[in-house]
Amino acid sequence: MWLKTLKKQAFLLIVVLGTFTGQVFASNAKMADEQNLQVYLEQVIGQGKARNYKNLDELNRVSAWIKEQMRLLGVPCHYQNFTANQQIYRNVVCSLNVGRADRVIVGAHYDVFGDQDGADDNASGVAGVIETARILAEQKFKLPNNVDFVFYSLEEPPFSKTEQMGSYVHAKSVQAQKDKIKGVYILEMIGFFSEQPIQSYPVGLKWIYPSHGNFIATVSNVSSRDLGAGYCAAMQQLDQLECQRLVAPSFANAFDFSDHLNYWEFDIPAVMITDTAFYRNGHYHTKADRLATLNLTKMANVIDGLVQHLLKP
């Protein structure tokens, strides 16, 4: 069973006695900190121009801040430059190497659609990756795999579902090592929750899944279904936030709205962890997608589950 303490101002430790698999999960893992998330979100959102593809200076500001923040956490990074629309854009690729043969990838896009803050889409995902990196860097001696943290540019239209997406560029660059990649975890909008019956779904799914919007979801394809299962198992053990799984068939196009799609293209197992985006959040791609609408406590729960999953022996 799990023994949990209440989270106050300091980081807390959780002691895990693994009953789900009969093994001991990562014990004494520090939990995600809401104040850290607040700072990360404020820095990514900024106070200037929107970080869309037209505002290259703002994209460069955000990517430079990410690189420096990760350096302060002890995780070195480099820029992966690529050309789109006759401009040079950049992913930020950061590596936490612990001497293992295999690796996992945790990623999120940092650009926005249009002229808006993009708090949920996708400053929330970026903040989640950074906080995950902070905790894993402190617990790196327990990691069973090396971990790459990747921050992508150009996920949004007009580049979505093209080879100019930052995640396509990155996925293509690692395809030769795909046998060493245990899985890719994409954080795509992880901050909007509601206990009200606001949740919608593609046709046919509303009879299977909850009507409330108070859960985190994983979307995988058949070959990556174990990633989603493992993450939801960790969330179940933490018992903080409900986790729902969806395994999408290869022909489905209702679930390919983020960066996991490009890893699927190269037969690399990938899962999207999401609050379900426009199926829940009515602020999607509008100026109403602001920091005040996010639930930082539940964001922290999402990260806690990912940390527990990645630290699992």
Automatic annotation (TrEMBL):
<protein>
    <submittedName>
        <fullName>M20/M25/M40 family metallo-hydrolase</fullName>
    </submittedName>
</protein>
<keyword id="KW-0732">Signal</keyword>
<dbReference type="GO" id="GO:0006508">
    <property type="term" value="P:proteolysis"/>
</dbReference>
<dbReference type="InterPro" id="IPR007484">
    <property type="entry name" value="Peptidase_M28"/>
</dbReference>
<dbReference type="GO" id="GO:0008235">
    <property type="term" value="F:metalloexopeptidase activity"/>
</dbReference>
<dbReference type="InterPro" id="IPR045175">
    <property type="entry name" value="M28_fam"/>
</dbReference>
<feature type="signal peptide">
    <location>
        <begin position="1"/>
        <end position="26"/>
    </location>
</feature>
<dbReference type="Pfam" id="PF04389">
    <property type="entry name" value="Peptidase_M28"/>
</dbReference>
<feature type="domain" description="Peptidase M28">
    <location>
        <begin position="91"/>
        <end position="305"/>
    </location>
</feature>
